[in-house]
């Protein structure tokens, strides 16, 4: 088990095809939202590819469109937990704040017996 796996609170899943993710710094109303590729997801976080570095501890606002019928778009909030460029491509981990926005709906997707 790798060092990063030892700190995970919940299992990580590959993002299903068709997930789209729009991100904007929470205090960045003047910044254009970014469309990002979601690499993986868990009950409490998302792994994304990023076009540039983003500082850890940046609060972000997200709109996650899920591809399954009736799933729609969830409005989530989170904080950038880490950002690194392994192999020259920026990646970031976003810790979700499930107490805000559609956090309860996101969390419900990972309840036992629910396919995620």
Write the layout of secondary structure elements.
Elements: E1 13-14, E2 20-25, E3 34-42, E4 45-49, E5 59-65, E6 73-84, E7 91-96, H1 103-108
Antiparallel strand pairs: 1-3, 2-3, 2-5, 3-4, 4-7, 5-6, 6-7
List keywords for this structure.
single chain; 116 residues; mainly beta; Thrombin, subunit H; 1 helix; 7 strands; disordered N terminus
Quick recap:
The longest helix has 6 residues. It contains 1 helix and 7 strands.
Describe this structure in words.
The protein is mainly β and 116 residues long. The chain has a single domain (5-108), classed as predicted glycosyltransferase like domains (Thrombin, subunit H, Beta Barrel). Helices cover 5% and strands 41% of the residues. The protein is built from 1 helix and 7 strands, in the order βββββββα. A 6-stranded antiparallel β-barrel has the order 2-3-4-7-6-5. The longest helix is centred in the C-terminal third of the chain and has 6 residues, at 103-108. The radius of gyration is 14 Å and the shape is globular. The two termini are 24 Å apart. 16% of the residues are buried. The model is unreliable at 1-6 (pLDDT under 50). InterPro entries: PilZ_domain. It comes from Alloalcanivorax gelatiniphagus. Residues 1-28 are annotated as: Disordered. Residues 7-98 form the PilZ domain. This is PilZ domain-containing protein.
């Amino acid at each position: 088990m790798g060092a990063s796996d030892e700190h995970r609170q919940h299992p990580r899943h590959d993002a299903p095809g068709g997930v789209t993710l729009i991100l904007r710094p929470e205090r960045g109303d003047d910044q254009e939202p970014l469309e990002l590729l979601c690499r993986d997801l868990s009950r409490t976080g998302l792994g994304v590819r990023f076009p540039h570095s983003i500082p850890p501890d940046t609060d972000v606002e997200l709109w996650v469109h899920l591809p399954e019928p009736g799933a729609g778009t969830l409005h989530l909030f989170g904080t950038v937990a880490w950002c690194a460029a392994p192999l020259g491509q920026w990646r970031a981990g976003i810790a979700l704040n499930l107490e805000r926005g559609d956090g309860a709906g996101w969390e419900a997707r990972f309840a036992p017996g629910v396919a995620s």
